[in-house]
Structures are given as C-alpha cells and as structure tokens.
C-alpha cells in the first residue's frame, strides 16, 4: 500500500490523479497539495494542504506530518505559458523539482515527475521518435524537461532515489481544463463543439502531435510506480503515447457526432512554432516492453467519451 503526497494537485493531471489514487489507495493515504485552496467539489471534506513548491521547509513539514512513502511532483508551468515568462518558468519548474527531489532523498521517498514530448526539438527525428535520441529543444519548457530528466537520473544514480518518469504527450480530459499548453486545442475543441458548434484552432492543418486520454495517463503513472524496479532498465523519460493526429482528424471525428460542427483556423505563431519543433509520433515500445504500458483509448473512443461527458456537465 502506498502513501502519496502530490504537488500541483489542482492542475489538469493532478486533479484526476488525486481521484484515481484515492480510489486505489484510500482517501487517508493520498495528500493532494497546491499553491491555493481548492474550489472543486471533489477536494472538499478530504485531506488537502496548501504548498508552494518553492518553499522546501513547508514541503518537509508536510512530509514529516503525513509520512508518505511516495511523492508525485506535478507542479509546473506548461509550454506556451513558459515561453511567455521564461525566467519564472526556469525558477518554478527547476526550483520546484529540485526541492521535491531533495525531500525525496532526505525522507527516502519513491519519486514521480512527468517529462513531455516537449523535451524533443526540431533536430529530433520526427517519426517513430526513439526514446534515446537527439534532444535539443528550442523552448524554455523543453529545456526544463530535458534538465529534469537528467536531474532525476542523477538522483537515482548518485543517491539511490527511486525516481521514475514518463514523457507525456498532449493530455485530453474533461474534468479540469488544461492551462497554457500547446496541445490544449485538442481539449478546447470538444468543449467548443458542445457549447458553440464550432472551433477556431490555433494549430494549423497538417500538424501532427502525440496525444493521450487522461485515464490512460493516470493509469500509466500507477503502473510505472508499481512496476518491479528490477524489471526497469531505465527509470525516467519513458516515451508514451495513445494516438497521434492532425487537427483535421479530430475535427472529422467530432463531426461524426455533431454533423454541423465547423472547424476554422487562426494560427498562433508561438504555439504553432512550438508544435512544429515537436515530433509527429513517438515510439513507446520501451514502456510497453519494460512495464507493460498499454493505453486503451484511440481517437474514436476518446471522442465518444469526451463529448458525452461534456454534454452531461
Ligand atoms: C503542453 O502542450 O505544454 C503539454 C505537453 C505536451 O507537455 N500538454
């Protein structure tokens, strides 16, 4: 049985991760934290603590009182917002990570933090991108993610901290909308399709990116953290993906359910530039082989579930 403290628990991943971990390990074994008090119903009446990840003393205080055996560090700025305030992104993304790693080292905690397809750059092979390949990202987010992958490996090799991590693609969910990512269009489209019957995409036609439904992402975290460490040849930076598509394909899928749906384009040069620097489709065979990663949702199934859930909100 694990006992887990989560940072950034009010974010897009953290919200659903908290829910799922509570189901699996029990409410009393999961402590979500974030920089502000929650307003969502699902956090009410259950353990929650305010934590700014830049404050290592507060992080230690919470670990001393809650006594977890695992820390899942989710607090970070996403790609588009990091590009608009690079210095703040460096300080928060790297400062928060090193604090969480230090706490994991001092209190002997298992450690998870996500990397991203953002850790790749324009010189990375675009198709079937291998797990070990050229990584020269051109965004601040990408620089943070590559540095984070290396730092997690360093804490494992140098200090024996059981660090584990995956490179997430764009994550698609209906519980909590994402904020400040490049792949957010693939979430927005579903909400706008239901609310307005149309969507104006800031990502251009023909731009392929990897994506994944949130249920698969959360399950991947649990599976990797539960995997027998002796079976893992590497610990961090596992490529994982659920699907890859261009905006026209997701629009066509939505149209199957909402025949009058219309897709327009008004390309944002910043986010398009970031998307152009990322792979079309990554190779996740190492995750499948080493810890049996096995996503369940493709574009068709995800579209059905997303539209249904948003309609019932
Ligand atoms: C973003 O677009 O910044 C994130 C990511 C792919 O890491 N969704």
From TrEMBL:
<feature type="domain" description="NAD-dependent epimerase/dehydratase">
    <location>
        <begin position="4"/>
        <end position="230"/>
    </location>
</feature>
<dbReference type="InterPro" id="IPR051225">
    <property type="entry name" value="NAD(P)_epim/dehydratase"/>
</dbReference>
<protein>
    <submittedName>
        <fullName>Nucleoside-diphosphate-sugar epimerase</fullName>
    </submittedName>
</protein>
<dbReference type="InterPro" id="IPR001509">
    <property type="entry name" value="Epimerase_deHydtase"/>
</dbReference>
<comment type="similarity">
    <text>Belongs to the NAD(P)-dependent epimerase/dehydratase family.</text>
</comment>
<dbReference type="InterPro" id="IPR036291">
    <property type="entry name" value="NAD(P)-bd_dom_sf"/>
</dbReference>
<dbReference type="GO" id="GO:0006567">
    <property type="term" value="P:L-threonine catabolic process"/>
</dbReference>
<dbReference type="Pfam" id="PF01370">
    <property type="entry name" value="Epimerase"/>
</dbReference>
<dbReference type="GO" id="GO:0008743">
    <property type="term" value="F:L-threonine 3-dehydrogenase activity"/>
</dbReference>
């Amino acid at each position: 049985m694990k006992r887990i403290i989560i940072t950034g628990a009010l974010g897009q991943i953290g919200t659903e991760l908290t829910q799922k971990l509570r189901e699996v390990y029990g409410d009393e074994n999961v402590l979500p934290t974030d920089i502000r008090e929650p307003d969502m119903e699902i956090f009410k009446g259950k353990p929650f603590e305010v934590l700014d990840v830049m404050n290592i003393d507060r992080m230690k205080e919470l670990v001393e009182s809650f006594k977890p055996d695992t820390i899942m560090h989710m607090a970070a700025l996403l790609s588009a917002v990091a590009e608009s305030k690079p210095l703040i992104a460096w300080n928060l993304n790297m400062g928060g990570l090193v604090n969480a790693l230090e706490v994991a080292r001092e209190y002997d905690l298992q450690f998870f933090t996500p990397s991203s397809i953002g850790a790749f750059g324009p010189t990375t092979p675009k198709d079937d991108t291998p797990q070990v390949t050229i990584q020269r990202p051109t965004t601040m987010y990408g620089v943070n993610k590559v540095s984070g992958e290396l730092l997690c490996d360093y804490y494992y090799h140098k200090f024996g901290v059981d660090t584990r991590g995956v490179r997430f693609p764009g994550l698609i969910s209906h519980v909590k909308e994402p904020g400040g990512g490049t792949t957010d269009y693939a979430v927005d489209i579903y909400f706008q399709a239901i609310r307005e019957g149309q969507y104006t995409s800031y990502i251009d036609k023909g731009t392929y990116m990897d994506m994944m439904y949130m249920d698969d992402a959360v399950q991947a975290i649990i599976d990797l953290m539960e995997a027998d460490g002796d079976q893992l040849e590497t610990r961090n930076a596992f490529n994982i993906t659920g699907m890859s598509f261009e905006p026209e394909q997701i629009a066509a899928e939505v149209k199957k359910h909402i025949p009058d749906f219309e897709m327009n384009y008004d390309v944002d040069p910043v986010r398009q530039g970031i998307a152009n620097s990322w792979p079309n489709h990554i190779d996740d065979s190492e995750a499948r082989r080493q810890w049996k990663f096995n996503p369940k949702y493709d574009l068709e199934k995800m579209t059905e579930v997303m539209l249904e859930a948003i309609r019932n909100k």
